[in-house]
Amino acid sequence: xxxxxxxxxxxxxxxxxxxxxxxxxxxxxxxxxxxxxxxxxxxxxxxxxxxxxxxxxxxxxxxxxxxxxxxxxxxxxxxxxxxxxxxxxxxxxxxxxxxxxxxxxxxxxxxxxxxxxxxxxxxxxxxxxxxxxxxxxxxxxxxxxxxxxxxxxxxxxxxxxxxxxxxxxxxxxxxxxxxxxxxxxxxxxxxxxxxxxxxxxxxxxxxxxxxxxxxxxxxxxxxxxxxxxxxxxxxxxxxxxxxxxxxxxxxxxxxxxxxxxxxxxxxxxxxxxxxxxxxxxxxxxxxxxxxxxxxxxxxxxxxxxxxxxxxxxxxxxxxxx
Amino acid sequence: xxxxxxxxxxxxxxxxxxxxxxxxxxxxxxxxxxxxxxxxxxxxxxxxxxxxxxxxxxxxxxxxxxxxxxxxxxxxxxxxxxxxxxxxxxxxxxxxxxxxxxxxxxxxxxxxxxxxxxxxxxxxxxxxxxxxxxxxxxxxxxxxxxxxxxxxxxxxxxxxxxxxxxxxxxxxxxxxxxxxxxxxxxxxxxxxxxxxxxxxxxxxxxxxxxxxxxxxxxxxxxxxxxxxxxxxxxxx
Lengths: 321, 236
Fold this sequence. Notes:
The complex is a heterodimer.
Chain A: H1 3-22, H2 24-30, H3 35-51, H4 56-73, H5 82-98, H6 100-123, H7 128-131, H8 134-144, H9 157-181, H10 187-210, H11 213-246, H12 253-286, H13 293-313
Helix pairs in contact in A: 1-3, 1-4, 3-4, 5-12, 5-13, 6-10, 6-11, 9-10, 9-11, 9-12, 10-11, 11-12, 11-13
Chain B: E1 6-10, E2 16-20, H1 24-51, H2 55-76, H3 82-86, E3 89-93, H4 101-109, H5 111-114, H6 121-129, H7 136-141, E4 143-147, H8 177-193, H9 195-209, H10 213-217, H11 219-231
Antiparallel strand pairs in B: 1-2, 3-4
């Protein structure tokens, strides 16, 4: 068929479709019963135009029409709660368990560095200034000093909310940066992980030396389970991405990265949500120094225990919602 | 086709259509506009923060602006942030389908890797060194940034078909698909070129494909009549 005949026969349909698409989603929805037919016809027209080598402008016009219709037809957006619940009950714990080796490596890196530095600082009290500046040390001591004036004064709810948003901003940004840093051959993640571990260890060691260990540990025990584990998971996700570029196990580098990113996405999302929970606990619970010591330690240990049980047991049998 | 700016997608219907991927400069401009908008929003928030007492809400919104600005617009406007809208760009999955929430989240998290130390060296290097102008976030999430379908390049001066005086010609044997398309593109642009330039451009080609001495003296007219016969317009 010659081009002019083709255009003469079909241009009424094309003009109709272009007019329909001017109304965007509303237009498509109005004609939703016939829209798949229109789409199929336009794909056939594009095929004919390309096979018969018609003018490039005509092929371009049909190409644009196919592109737009494709976007509307395949762009259905439905938001449901079920995937969210299934994420928590099945997807996230299973994703963590499938990377057991990385879990062990990252935990060893983090806790290893923090315990090493903690013991070092506890034995050599002056060495704290090799890790932190003087002003920072003063700041930290002020936070946990029982004789400080802010200590037993309960914060009002606005103060708590301020700390909440600060923790959200600070901690989740750290987690995201740790994750993204992993792409640089994994070095970024390892760097952030060890840096945070060393910082934590140095602070703990110094506070033990200053005798503030009781307020410090009762403060951190509540939220540390969620926060530290989340940071470790984000580093894990970053390492998975970074190392997939180096050890591709037979795939092209692009495909290896794609596959690893698909696996790493539940890890980083779950990590961000865990940090949200940690921020809630830290802002509204952890700083209540007025509560009895045993209660705070007890709840903290309970939360640790719950988290370990969750990651070991949850999602082994798939729950359908 | 070998260019970087065309990417092929196969639909489930078995049709291959082409996506025009956006290049480095236009993506950079769109990103610049987005950064300006983000900075502007942050500054207004900081000013408001000093005026009102409920600072915590503003700090939260600041966090959301920093990390979730692009994700929000990808979800609401189907892959277009305001900066991209200005240049008619759109984020799509690599097969042309609309971008999914997970993919958008992933590619925006990895922005930090792409503009490492705010130098953007890694992002630019990856975009220039690989096919399709994909930065690291695009490679991980399997997305593309393409020119939107709505961007219609209409050259107003080229409206209407060309006209030719000669009758339909029979195509010489051996003119393949690419050459036919080239002839048609030449015919489409002929009104802009003018007779002398047109003759200059196509004389070499016509020398190769035609045996007729007459045609070689008016190569542009020869190609115009070939084009007319290809598309099947009635001879005037």
